[in-house]
Amino acid sequence: MRLVLAYLLLVPLALIFVTPLLWLISTALKDDAQMGAWPPVLFPSPLRWDHFYTAWTAGNFGLYLRNTVLITVLASVGQVGTSSLVAFGFARLRFPGRDALFAILLATLMLPGVVTLIPTFVLFKQLGWLNSFKPLIVPAYFGGGPFFIFLLRQFYKTLPQELAEAAHIDGASNYRIYWQVMLPLIKPALSTVAIWAFMGSWNDFMAPLIYLSSPEKFTLTLGLRLFMTNTQTRFQEMMAMALLMTLPVIVVFFAFQQYFIQGVVMSGIKA
Amino acid sequence: MGQASAQAQPAASAQSTTAVRRSLWSRPIQRREAIDGYVFILPWLLGLIIFTIGPFVAGFYFSLTEYDGLTAPHWVGLANYQAILLHDPKFLLAVGNTVWYVAASVLPGVILGLLLALILNQKVPGITLFRTLFYMPSIVPAVASVALFIYILHDRFGILNELLFRLFHVAGPHWLTSPRWSKPSLVLWSLWGVGGGMIIYLAGLQGVPEALYEAASIDGAGTWRRFRHVTIPMISPTLFFVLIMGVIGSFQVFTPVFLLGSSEYAMESAGPMNSLLFWVIYIYNQGFFYFRMGYASALAWLLFVLLMVLTLLQFKVAGRWVYYEGEELR
Fold first, then answer.
1. Is B320 exposed, middle or buried (0-12, 13-18, 19+ CB in 10 A)?
2. Which residues have C-beta within 8 Å of that of residue A222, sequence separation ≥ 6?
3. Contact map slice: A 120-149 vs B, CB within 8 A
4. DSSP E strands: which ranges in chain B?
């Protein structure tokens, strides 16, 4: 009885949530005749794959993809690398002022990003970094943001103290303990950070909008926006490119979901 | 775990002889650890100074100046704040629009997300599938999902108005092109992404000990009372956290509003009849379109102050209804 009721609610709600995605996919594959048809066509036939090709070339998406991949990879490496360093320092080492500094870190977690927007822009302008990828990459190498540090610190904290102590007695330095003992153990958490760092750069719109001005520097988000505002663009092409932008995110989600759950299970077994 | 420590062992012992020698000439071990600690957190510390505290302070200074980003800032005292609060009808409009959106999107989003989580928590077969279906829209890149909604909500070619007309014989509104419906369109878009919150509630719900429900049942509590007196208190910290973050985030909403509100690249963004002129959009327009960096900084600081006040207020209020474990139930 309870199950029937749950399904009576779940199925229609799930349909409402999924239909826009199906509509995105099916529109990208429709010919003009199926576009305005009634009843609406959810599973187009014939399938028209050529919108992908025409949109891709007309919108210069190859270039945008290259730019986005470059920025995303370099920024994510910086975020994963430096946040794991900083989190290790906060979680496993004792030094004067540590707790006060960590409180500051937590406070910056609540700091609205918009309050530093204009001065940061001015800073990068003074450095001559406008219309380059540097403003989108370099800040990632300074700790990777308070949230990732916080997340990794929680993970480091769950690892048994004896491990590091044993290594210490064997004479390993803290750097060695970080690199050879701790990093391999927090791999699941690192991949979580990597996924979110990737998503952050890949989906970012505001920073590229502010820092990149010439179209040959554009990212996919800016390119898609440029493409959307072009009156020549047809809806099929717009949906095709929106779908292409979404696909890597969905793939990463499904690929790492497994890995992520494994990581959670393993950390549950830990001590 | 065992495999990892096995990896670490040979590396560590290979170093042991040199390290023993080093610990002989080195100072107290704590000093070593402290220095290492600072080295490890150095990237963040530098970033904090360069990218957070520096700009934070500089922004307040800019807000007291007239600054076009090219010539040196010119000190004007509180003139920007005065102009914003007393003589700027567009600012009031932007605040009104933003508050409208926050009120209309955050609470319904929390309720819908919680509802989905509660249904999914009923141990229904196929929960993984449903969870994925509800969650997926929230990870679609904002630019892509806005593109999709522009099409779905289109006056003439959109499927939503087509459905309204064919099924209910209702002439649908001009979703994105009328000042009256542009914000509700934005709310629709935001509700589609409610799955992110749902995942967090679900984790919270699954952390509620089964024994509490059993105890409540034995005491004769029905479904509603178990929900009201067990579920809600137990997940109230989670609810509260998502609510605060939702409010802070929604006050700063930019990407979807900008995309729906501007028609050409590098144009001022405001939507039909300024109906999508939001606080951060206004900051963007002033700073990067009119190059009034001082004025934009003052707008940003006002938003910052408001958000801080709201956050503190929410923490105060939370004391009354949020239950934290280890605390006496009121």
1. exposed
2. A64, A205, A208, A209, A212
3. 120-123, 125, 139, 141-143, 149
4. 65-66, 74-75
The C-alpha atoms of residue A34 and residue B241 are separated, in whole angstroms, by 46
> Which one of A114, A182, A187, A249 makes the best mutation probe of the B interface by having the most chain B beta carbons within 10 Å?
A114
Give CA–CA dist B201/B187, Å, rounded.
Answer: 21
Q: Does residue B101 register a pLDDT over 70?
A: yes
What is the ipTM score, two decimals? 0.91
Q: Across all residues in chain A, what is the average pLDDT?
A: 90
Q: What contacts A96, CB < 8 A, 6 or more positions away? A: B34
Spatial CA neighbour of A87 closest among A137, A163, A161, A144: A144
Q: Is B46 left (phi over 0), alpha (psi -120 to 50) or beta?
A: alpha
Question: Does the CB of B130 have a partner CB in chain A at under 8 Å?
Answer: yes
Nearest CA of chain B to the CA of A262: how many Å? 14
Contacts of A40 in chain B (CB under 8 A): 159, 162-163
Q: Which domains does chain A have, with CATH numbers?
A: 4-11+15-48 (no CATH), 51-269 (1.10.3720.10)
b/e code A117-145 from CB counts within 10 Å (16+ = b): bbbbbbbbeeeebeeebbbbbbbbbbbbb
pTM for this model (two decimals):
0.88
What is the rounded distance in angstroms from the CA atom of residue B255 to the CA atom of residue A204? 9
CA distance A189 to A120: 30
Token pair listed for B161: 């108005």
Contact A174 B130 (CB under 8 A): no
Whether A269 shows a pLDDT value over 80: the answer reads no
Helices A235-269, B142-152: crossing angle, 10 deg rounding: 140
Interchain contact A248–B (C-beta under 8 A):
no
Spell out the domain ranges in chain B: 82-321
pLDDT of residue A259: 58
Residue B109 vs residues A174, B116, B249: alpha-carbon distances, Å: 45, 11, 13
User: Is the N-terminal amide bond of A46 cis, ω within 30° of 0?
Assistant: yes
| CATH number corresponding to B82-321 | 1.10.3720.10
**A 64-83 residues with CB below 8 A of B?**
82
Can you give the C-alpha Rg of chain A in angstroms? 23
Q: How far apart are CA B173 and CA B171, in angstroms?
A: 7
Helix H or strand E segment including B289: none
Query: Looking at residue B325, what is its pLDDT?
Result: 56
Instruction: Give the Cα separation of A227 and A238 in Å (integer).
Output: 7
Antiparallel, parallel or unpaired: β B65-66 and B74-75: antiparallel
In this structure, what token pair is assigned to residue B219?
Answer: 């005491």
Q: Which of B167-181, B186-200, B216-230, B234-248 has the lowest mean pLDDT?
A: B234-248
pLDDT of residue B21: 42
- Beta strands (DSSP E) in A130-214 are none
Structure tokens at A92: 């496993």
DSSP string, A109-130: HHS-GGGGHHHHHHHHHHTT-T
